[in-house]
Design a protein that fits this description.
Rossmann fold, 7-stranded mixed sheet, 8 helices, alpha/beta
Length: about 210
Amino acid sequence: MQAAPEPVTAVSAAGTARLPTAWGEFAATAYVDADDVEHLVLVLGDAADDAAVEAPLVRVHSECLTGDLLGSKRCDCGDQLERSLELISNEGRGVLVYMRGHEGRGVGLAHKIRAYGLQDEGLDTVDANLAQGLPADGRRYHAAGFMLLDLGVTQARLLTNNPAKVADITEAGVEIVERVPVAVEPNEMNARYLSAKRERLGHLLEIPTIDP
């Protein structure tokens, strides 16, 4: 008889409820990680491991108040969030992990807004963080992997353009069987931002030409 999996102790579920949305009705679970940061996981359908079906689509999305809530054109965050929910909805099965504490690539809202001011003066998104004595990208994604494991998801088709997500979630114990690109159209306000993501942070953006 196969041994039971080890319990996941790096995160703890704090409550689950139905969450009807424009993309379908999800099961929403709030999690608290080892640093007492609260995250939200939305599950559509039965996303737990099932040998009879392929691994679920999974989006691990970093919190971005300006993009996700206000529709900022300076980034592609809101567009990626909506596109990922659309793809999950189309399949009728999948998971969205919404990572709190990731604002401004992990530097927080105030530093992010200051970084915007520095970008208006000519710096790109990477140098705007570095100029404040902050990391170019301080985010880590292991907690997302632990939340997936707690939900019984050990394999995933990960909706991302960011290799760092693949690496961290794999290290946490989830097998990424496929990286699924999240393609969104650039605009004149975020072309330079997307260029920095691709050229300086190694994001695998499948946009033929970016002319910042």
